[in-house]
Design brief:
Length: 297
């Protein structure tokens, strides 16, 4: 199995970056990742302003996937995630929606064990590792690894975890994928501005699928999650709703109005994160709705 070291990283997605790793379609690869602080925070004495911010959210890559072309859709099957042995959670004035109520900066270093994270002597959090940054080069320009978008990026969606699949639209030859920002656990919304930030190693498989999408989609055993990001909640929700309604209408041979009604009856709106430069939401669609002939079955 190929091993891609975390000593080759990017802090932006761009078609101008030269690939540093190469993978084949169908190949399983192992990708080592740094934490979102790039290893700069190791003790509680390091606070939110004490590190080089230009190094934040390093993503291992770019990875050139042979056979991926512009206009394709790539499936990233997440096979395994192994986290580091500690996680980091910071609080600071201005960080997260309640940052104005935080009086001073502080850092917690949380031990990570085989099945849980020790928050304190009384509270143990189940270990639920996920990938925060997973993306490909955008169609144009340069996008920070701190930002989400149609290319993926900093989606901070807790369903991007072992056993699930992430589908991404491809904008450039070879995809130029990169991954990072693992969390040992994170709730929907990433409400304080941080998950349990950690390093680790992931195993993924890249494949090409025979349909096109405009925004990332995540699949688990029961649901498809249609993801959208925008500067406002309203715009992110509108994009996700429109994408999902149109897709259901196509798959189920429904009018737009009936698809919209169906979405309201059985689908759920979830907030992935509300703290990045763009907010990210997702619509959960039960796979039981889809016909047996669907590519998702």
């Amino acid at each position: 199995m190929k091993h891609f070291s975390s000593n080759r990283t990017i802090t932006s997605f761009s078609s101008q970056h030269e690939p540093v790793y190469f993978a084949e379609l169908g190949e399983v690869v192992e990708i080592e990742t740094n934490d979102c602080y790039d290893g700069q925070v190791k003790t509680v004495d390091t606070l939110r302003g004490d590190f080089d911010r230009s190094r934040l959210n390093p993503a291992t890559g770019p990875i050139y996937i042979n056979g991926m072309q512009k206009g394709d859709t790539m499936c990233v099957e997440v096979l395994d995630i192994k986290t580091g042995n500690y996680g980091i959670m910071m609080a600071a004035p201005g960080l997260g929606p309640l940052g104005n109520s935080v009086s001073g900066s502080s850092t917690k270093i949380l031990p990570v064990y085989e099945d849980h994270v020790e928050f304190n002597e009384k509270i143990k959090i189940p270990l639920q590792p996920m990938i925060g940054v997973a993306g490909v080069a955008p169609a144009e320009g340069e996008v920070s690894t701190a930002a989400p978008g149609t290319h993926g990026g900093n989606l901070d969606t807790k369903d991007i975890k072992a056993g699930n699949k992430l589908y991404l639209p491809i904008f450039v030859e070879g995809a130029l994928a990169a991954f990072g920002d693992l969390h040992a656990a994170m709730g929907d919304g990433e409400l304080s501005g941080t998950g349990i930030e950690t390093s680790g190693v992931i195993q993924v498989r890249f494949t090409k699928v025979p349909f096109t999408i405009g925004n990332p989609i995540v699949e688990d055993d029961k649901f498809l999650y249609f993801i959208a990001s925008a500067e406002s909640y309203e715009n992110a929700i509108h994009t996700a709703l429109l994408q999902t309604t149109n897709q259901l209408a196509s798959w189920l041979d429904l009018s737009f109005e009936d698809s919209y009604r169906l979405l309201s009856a059985v689908c759920d709106l979830k907030f992935s994160q509300i703290v990045n430069p763009l907010v990210t939401v997702r619509i959960a669609v039960p796979k039981s709705l889809l016909p047996e002939s669907s590519q998702w079955e």
